[in-house]
Amino acid sequence: MQYFVFLLLAAFPALAEISFSRQIQPILVRQCTACHQPQSKQSDFSLTTYSDFQKGGRKGPAWIAGNPGESVLLKYLTGEFKPQMPFGGKPLPQDQIDLFAAWIREGGKDDTVSTSTISQRKEVTYHSAPLLTAFAFSPDGKTVAVSGYHEILLVSVEGKLLARLPGDSMRIHGLAFTPDGKTLAAAGGSPAQKGEVQIWDVEKRRLKHAITASTDTLFGGSLSPDGKLLACGAADKAIRIFDVEAGKEVRKMDHHEDWVFATVFGIDGKRLVTVGRDRAAKLSDVSTGRFIENVNLLKEPLAAVARHPKRDWILVGGAERVPYLYRMDRPRAMRIADDSTLIQKFEKQDGPITAVAISPDGTKVAAGAEAGDVRVYDAESAKLLGRCSGHKGGIYAVQFTPDGSQVVTGGFDGELRFYDIEGKLARSFIPAPIQVATR
């Protein structure tokens, strides 16, 4: 084995140093972390962080720096140790095994960009408004966290820029404040490159954790009611749950058959509803990761979900263009084509639904569409209360203000718009600081 590894490494003497963050970690995330994560931790071996990976499991350290031929990791990947890894799947291609061997021979170093280095990144210069893909209100309603390009913008509700929080992710697709307002969680990434969770200390404007968790973008980050867990969907079809304080992935679930776009916890935080392109609103147990059932009757791909503030009811919407309000608990045993969880069906929108929201008192719902339209309804009667117009492009995010008096929208044109419930525009502004080009 050792002779074989040295031979293959000798064939690549001029290659640049192997990167853990760009080349090794994506393979681990894609092929290995489903079994080797803190909650399951098969063979007492977790791979969700570099330090856990380095520590190894029951057979000791995963690798010996500079000595791939004697490293446990390589012996399992090549099949010298049984069972060959990944367990139950196809062996890694030889070029990927060669990559691990080369990385170990070079010392098996961690080149992940530190949070301090990210925070010192040069500020982005905007010449036009960036897509507004996510925003969230602080609990006191005075501050809005808004997605930017490689950063999060903190602005006052009047539009004053308060802070810029630079990060590694190209796009942020989910933002949420903890109940005390002290921590901000973000989910996003860079398409076809990485998914990332960011955990920020709001007061200190400090990035506490930056967690790479996928080889593609993360979506729909939502916090548990106590603010301790963050759930995300992903383009790799997985649902991931993170410990906010520790900054670690604690569970990965593979219940969906396609991209997962949005997540929401139940009232007590013990259950999670996730929606995606496979048309399902799936109910799962948070502590065990067990799939419970589909909440909805499958129709068309779903893109958005929101939970009633006082009940385990969820509002969903997607390609069918119709918002539906469901209860999470089925009133009777499931039957074929059973839609017994349905509470309310609203009117068809002008385009596929991309964002939904429920007011803080639970009496009103809002739905935003690709057509650039946001409509507000009475939750009980489904009566149309208001229509928020004037957007230049599709809607990507909709929220009610914490006091429930206004509907706020964001989307393709990069503007944050505040409407009253009847749809009258109160004010709008572009959160990103635009630099006017000079000649």
Keywords:
single chain; mainly beta; Methylamine Dehydrogenase, Chain H; four-stranded antiparallel sheet; 6 helices; globular
Question: Could you please describe the fold and organization of this structure?
Answer:
- The strands form seven sheets. The protein has a four-stranded antiparallel beta sheet with strand order 1-2-3-4, with no helix packed on it. It has a four-stranded antiparallel beta sheet with strand order 5-6-7-8. The chain has a four-stranded antiparallel beta sheet with strand order 9-10-11-12, with no helix packed on it.
- The chain is globular.
- The protein has helices spanning 2-10, 20-31, 50-55, 72-78, 94-105, 115-119; strands spanning 135-137, 143-147, 151-156, 161-166, 171-177, 183-190, 194-201, 206-214, 218-223, 229-234, 239-243, 248-253, 260-265, 271-276, 281-285, 291-294, 302-307, 313-318, 324-327, 342-345, 353-358, 364-369, 374-378, 384-388, 395-400, 406-411, 416-420, 425-429.
- The chain contains six helices and 28 strands.
- The longest helix has 12 residues, at 20-31.
- It folds into two domains: 2-105, no CATH class; 116-429, Methylamine Dehydrogenase, Chain H.
- The model is unreliable at 1-14 (pLDDT under 50).
- With 439 residues, the chain is mainly β.
- It starts with a helix and ends in a 10-residue tail after the last strand.
- Helix 2 crosses helix 5 (94-105).
